[in-house]
Amino acid sequence: MSVDNEKKNTQEEKNDKTKFIARSQKIGPEKNVEKSKIEPVSVKEINKEDSINDKSHTKRPESKTAHPSTRTEVNTTVTRENNSPGYQTLEKGHLVKNRYVIDSLIGHGGLCDVYRAKDKVLESSGVASPFVALKVLQHEYIDQPETARMLIREAQHTQTLSHPNIIRVFDFGVDNKIYFIVMEYLDGETIEQLIQRSRPNGLAFPNAKVLLNQILDALIYAHSLDIVHADLKPANIMIDSAGTVKLLDFGVSKTERLKQDQYAAKRKVDDHQVLGYTPNYASLNIICGNKPCRQDDLFAFACIAYELLSCKHPYNRTPIDLAKKNAIPLKKPSGFPNALWHDIKTILTDTSGQYKLSAESLKQRLNQNNRSKYAIAALIVLGLFTSLGVAHHLNSQIVQLEETNRQLAHSLQTQQQIINSQPESAFELSASDTIHPVLRAGLLRHHKQTLLAKFEQQIDEILNQSNNEYPDYDQVESVLKHAAIYYPDSHKLELLNLDMRSSKRSTLLSIERHINSVLEKGQYDAQQDGKSIVDLNNDLNSIQKNYPLTPSSLALEVFEQNLIDAIEQRNSIALTELLAIGATFFSTHEASQQRLLHAKEVNSAVIAMEKWKQAEENGQQAVYPYDAAQVLYGHKFTSLHKKLENATTVNSLDQLVTDIDNLAKDFPPNFPNISELRFQTANKYLKFSDMLLRKRQSVSARNAMKKANELLQQVDSTDFRG
User: Fold this and answer.
1) Residue 185 phi, psi (nearest 5)
2) Checking phi first, is residue 176 left (phi over 0); if not, alpha (psi -120 to 50) or beta?
3) Where is the composition biased (Low complexity) (predicted)?
């Protein structure tokens, strides 16, 4: 829908921009939004999207009317299943706000699901049908404070529309991350279903007139507020069990719909939904992408009136632009009065929209042949006077009524004394079991502004604590939870809560970005503003315990390269620092876990080896750290064994012996791995000697034998027992 008065919306935007970020700033005043006091009528929301197949309709440029997927609901009562992975709905019996009991899922839209729910308050007060409709923000959007704020804004705007032929919004709020709007629950059918039941001839004019009058009443009211529906169709109009017509999807201004685009989910939709309107009932003005106007609603109304009286669309379900292009004739249905047909025909054929007709003039034309209502009124008045004749039978009850009246007066006096008590005593009085629930609610409501101001003052004191670098969000949340016990439906508290969550999230993301910046540079010991990366992580966890910090891919890449370099260099100082960083920021990363374990072994081995060398230099007796040496030099022993296995000549064995002797300088004489390598190399020399003898190369064979014996003597001198 479109709202012409943009100034009002602009001012509301300014009022809602108060943020919770600056600790010294006070959050702005709550906008007083009165809830509807009308009791919900039992109505069943049975609706579906316009199912008319419009495959022949060429796709046009997107209308300025908001895209249906960006609206909180394409239709308040769309009924369809969502089988997407991870999709969650509320189960039957789930209690929302300790008041609304979920009965069943009856609708689904772009951002919200619609449930039939039982209102426990209405049930306890004896209402015959205590059902309401709950529009609930879908689970995937609950962590987006902006989206929740958008839902609250929609409810506030919808509540400003109060008309018996427009669906009502009674309440809205949040309960344990369930953001909801409480709406009138409709028990009836849509105009679309009525048309299908009336085939093939349509409704008789007197019956249709009753419905058309109510539709026009709603349009007259909306147009008086400069609001255009812009998507009127049979599926958007319901008739409840009492015969009352209800227009759905009313009350969200064009400005509001456009604002929702940035939070809208991208869902698979049909061509009708993609354009933001239903082509079969859209005027040429809307199809061309122009700003919606009142004549667009009149065009849709004319189509609906035509279809009610004939069960046929005026252009055989062809959009108006194609109908004009293909010169589809417009035929007058047999049930149409001539006077009304003249106006309906003008609306359906004059695509310029320059005609002077309005919803008011259409209603006058629709009812110009009505019989006078004064005769009916006279009969009613006559009946009332006649009923007065039975008044004398009530005299016997006067005494009893006077006594009842006295008791009521005393009760009212007591209740007034409670209401006039000081605001500070309201919490204690409201907890008393002797006070009637209605009086308890009245007491809290009477002192609402004063008590909410006290809660807000507590929050300001927390935010302005000079000894804290960051606001104590947990303490603020505790105050808000305490306040919500007494005022669970307070819009002001909910907006404060949303701002607090938004501020907390912004602070956490800011610190996380700072940490990632340091990790990506690999400057783990650097300090900024007197804070190290560990200090920043402590800040993060002080704001939210066990915050799931996710290092960036670049931070992980830099860390692993630094770890590899430190292992190769056997830099104990660097390894110690990197192990601490890894345990803090990378311990949950699967690819880093094995590397961190190896780095820990290497660091322990380096420290053990350095202690042994220090003891040797100081002339102290110390046991050589064989296990540490295995860790530090294991890869070199593996490499030498590989060379031994691949050696095919005496010369290659000679080079291997040189490598073994060079490596042996780093170990004590009896190091097992060195002795083992020499022993196996000697065996291979002996094998080469035997092979050379068989080839009658006796000199080479003797040289190989000699080298084998030298190696065996080295092994024996170290007392190696292989």
Assistant:
1) -100, 125
2) left
3) 71-83
- Among 50, 119, 217, 231, which one carries the catalytic annotation? 231
CATH of domain 2-11+36-366: 1.10.510.10
Which letter, b or e, does each residue of 516-531 get, where b requires 16 or more Cβ atoms within 10 Å of its Cβ? bebbbeeebeeeeeeb
Q: Which residues of the chain have pLDDT under 70?
A: 1-87, 109-110, 154, 157-158, 249-277, 369-397, 399, 402-403, 406-407, 409-441, 466, 528, 718-722
The whole-angstrom separation of Cα 131 and Cα 462 is 41
Q: Is 231 a catalytic residue?
A: yes
CB 439 within 8 A of CB 417: no
pLDDT digits (tens, 9 = 90+) for 589-647: 777 788 888 888 888 888 888 888 888 888 888 888 888 888 888 888 899 999 999 99
Task: Give the pLDDT confidence of 443-486 residue by residue, as tens digits.
Answer: 777 778 888 888 888 888 888 876 778 888 888 989 898 888 88
Q: For the chain, what is the largest distance between any 2 Cα atoms, rounded to a whole number of angstroms?
A: 149
Beta strand extents in 166-280 (DSSP E only): 169-175, 178-184, 188-190, 227-228, 237-240, 245-247
What is the Cα–Cα distance from 526 to 427, expressed in whole angstroms? 52
CA distance 193 to 311: 11
Distance CA 264, CA 70 (A): 5
Give 10-24 pLDDT, tens digit per residue.
444 444 433 333 333
- C-alpha angle 622-625-626 in degrees, rounded to nearest 5: 135
